[in-house]
Amino acid sequence: MSREILREMVTAIRRLRGKPMDSDRVEEWAARLEAHLMELEFLAAQAVPDAAEPAFEATPLGGLSTGAEQPTDLTAQVRTAAGGGLQTVARGDTRPAPARWDFTMALTAVIPLLRARQLSALELVEKHLERIRQAEGLNAFIAVFEEQARHEAMAADRALASGSAGVLAGIPIGIKDLMAMRGYTMTGGSRALDGALSSTDADVVARLRAAGAVIVGAANLHELAYGVTSENPHFGAVKNPRGPEYMAGGSSGGSAAAVAARLALGAVGTDTGGSIRIPAAACGVVGLKPTYGRVTRRGVLPLSWSLDHVGPLAATCGDAAVLWAVMADDPLQEERAFAQAVIARSVSPQDTPALSSGLEAAARLARAMADGGDDASDQTGGVTGVSDALVGLRVGRPSDEWLHPLQDDVARAWQVSLERLREAGALVSVVEPPPMSFIRAAQFVVLHVEASAFHRERLRQRASDLGPDVRVRLQLGEFLMAVDYVQGQRLRRQVANGFLHLFDRVDVLVLPALPVAAPALGTRLITMGDRAEPVHRALTRYTAPFNQSGLPALVVPVGTDARGLPLGIQIAGRPFRELDILRVGIVPEALGRPS
After folding, report:
1. 176 has catalytic annotation
2. Distance between CA atoms of 593 and 285, rounded to whole angstroms?
3. Please, are residues 508 and 580 in contact by the beta-carbon 8 Å criterion?
4. Catalytic annotation present for 127
5. Angle of the 357-370 helix axis to the 578-586 helix axis, nearest 10
6. How far apart are CA 44 and CA 476, in angstroms?
7. What is the CA radius of gyration of the chain?
8. Choosing from 230, 252, 255, 275, which is the catalytic residue?
9. β-bridge pairing 87-88 and 79-80
10. Which is deepest, 306, 329, 360, 391, by most CB within 10 Å?
11. Kind and range of the H or E element at 387?
12. Residue 4's pLDDT is what?
């Protein structure tokens, strides 16, 4: 960063404070911050050089350990592709999967085939490993654990044969390279981490393994999860499977791309300002940010302690429900029953008492959609379909003024989705969320301060190892003061309370996921009408509110624009009501099902 730009940034930050004011008037503070925030963000964007950064060539660490007391060193097994990007383990021959299975099938449709022994876990995993190799150009994975995945698949086949298999036995899953995986050196998408081999799994990874999931690789991401583009200067940009010249979104871009390209049947991401939901919308998959704290973050590299969330990415709402029930802290009986009902051919007697009629209908609808239909017959011969799935549900939609500006294609897809919800029996009304200026001010201050606090020593000691955009953001956070952080948290509480009061009037809130479709790689500014703003500011506009409030939010693909790029809607709900928004998402997701 040049001294001139740094000096201008410091001057801009000083202007944020202005004259002393009544400390109770956080609204005045927010208004003043909003007036100068764009100037500051433009300066930060200007500080990032335009020249492409050289690819980072990872150095394998350690050697292969075969002792039971030590983890297998997966990092030592991987090779680094020239020019950065995919790392992969030794290859093997593949065996063809049965004709009944193909890559378009959802996770919920594959599970019955595995349990009926019509498809082996090893065959399924081999096919996905082969597909990953064929899709190296997407840069969806930093490392692929081929041999480890084969061993896990064979173990899943044994468990399936003995009847002791977990719900995800044999299912290939990708993990964002921000989480500890035993035997692997987490990169965080950066060259600035210490490079310590992990002897344990992050808790969420351990839960997936306990359910039988096969971890096929470490997914690429925006460096340290601090950005929305996943244009990683060290491992290469993640490319959008729907159009490789476009962004996959971030920071969980590799996780979303892996699901969209059918390199895995599910993936795990993290979300601090939209980092699950932004790439889900950009790539055309389902992404769930749960209620704050519902999924443990133990073993996950933090970015912002009070904003970070962990959640699943999947092809369908039904798939996300199954992953969610495995990942959640102390999942409710109803959540377990819903996930079981989604993957079962019928609701078992022991599950029925735990499942409300609405969720039972949603589970049947999810199964039918996984099989390619729009309706599902119930056990008495009736039909539960889109026409009556959401009778009486109160849906709120933000006002046009709150959403402005909005790309025309996005607006049309959102309106079609609202109409689909009305056809399913929902009652749609206009509501007014908390002011966008409050949301932007609180997100900017809280995220920048917490990220800079966590990475303080890394910035001091290894700044040259950081990509320029992440380095500038971390430097920016160091100029903010404790009084700014306190005001930001107070304002954030007002935002959260405003959303909670909104849910006194409605059951769910439905809004666009992003104001635009996926931007082209390299985009710095997004222009809509007469407004231009930095890409990270534009793409987090509708997602950040639910990190601040901690409310659950789901992104569902609902079609494409004129270029064939995915468009998504976002469904938010009350705390701990993830099943409500998944149930609602099942209805419009049929609009976005890829051919």
Report:
1. yes
2. 9
3. yes
4. no
5. 50
6. 8
7. 23
8. 275
9. antiparallel
10. 360
11. none
12. 67
Tens-place pLDDT, residues 412-442: 999 999 999 999 899 999 999 999 999 999 9
Mean pLDDT, rounded, for 295-301: 96
Q: Using CA atoms, how far apart are residues 481 and 479, in angstroms rounded to an integer? A: 6
Report which of 416, 415, 360, 367 is spatially closest to residue 389, judged by C-alpha positions. Answer: 360
Q: What are phi and psi of 289, to 5 degrees?
A: -100, 110
Which of 120, 127, 176, 198 is catalytic? The answer is: 176
The CB density around residue 527, as the number of other CB atoms within 10 Å, is: 12
Q: Which of 251, 255, 417, 452 is catalytic?
A: 251
Taken in order 566, 572, 578, 580, the sign of the CA dihedral is negative
Percent of the chain surpassing pLDDT 70: 75
In the chain, % of residues over pLDDT 90: 66
Q: What tokens appear for 501 in the block?
A: 């009061």
Mind listing the pLDDT tens digit for each residue in 124-182? 999 999 999 999 999 999 999 999 999 999 999 999 999 999 999 999 999 999 999 99
* Three-class DSSP category at 261: coil
> Residue 332 corresponds to which tokens in the numbers above?
């409710």
pLDDT band for 530, please (50, 70, 90 cuts): confident
Q: Is 275 a catalytic residue?
A: yes
The residue whose two tokens read 């599910």 is 266
> What own/partner pairs with CB < 8 Å and gap ≥ 24 does 374-377 have?
374/590
Token pair, residue 465, equals: 């190892």
Residue 223 near residue 84, CB atoms below 8 Å: no
For residues 103 and 116, the answer to whether their CB atoms sit within 8 Å is: no
Exposure of 127 in the CB half-sphere (CA atoms within 13 A) = 22
Q: pLDDT band at 194, cuts 50/70/90?
A: confident
431 DSSP β-pair partners: 398
C-alpha 575/C-alpha 428 separation (Å) is 21
Q: Is the peptide bond preceding residue 251 cis, with omega within 30 degrees of 0? A: yes
**Nearest residue to 93 via CA among 113, 121, 64, 122:** 122
Beta carbons of 26 and 34 less than 8 angstroms apart: no
Asked if the model's pLDDT at residue 58 lies above 60, the reply is no
Q: How far apart are CA 11 and CA 7, in angstroms?
A: 6
Largest CA distance in the chain: 74
Angle at 138 between CA 136 and CA 142, to 5 degrees: 65
Cβ–Cβ contacts within 10 Å for residue 130, how many? 14
Q: Directed axis angle between helix 203-210 and helix 317-327, to 10°?
A: 110
Q: How many residues in total does the chain contain?
A: 595
**CA separation for the pair 237, 467 (Å, rounded):** 12
Beta partners for 355?
none
The three-class DSSP label of residue 139 is coil
- Tokens coding 266: 């599910």
Q: How many CB atoms lie within 10 A of CB 68?
A: 6
Question: Which domains are seen in the chain, by residue range?
Answer: 74-89+105-346 (3.90.1300.10)
113: pLDDT strictly greater than 60? yes
How far CA 117 is from CA of 160, 161, 169, 225, in Å, comes to 8, 8, 12, 39
Residue (of 513, 573, 578) closest to 324 by Cα position: 578
Six-digit token pair at 361?
């209908």
The end-to-end CA distance of the chain, in Å, is 46
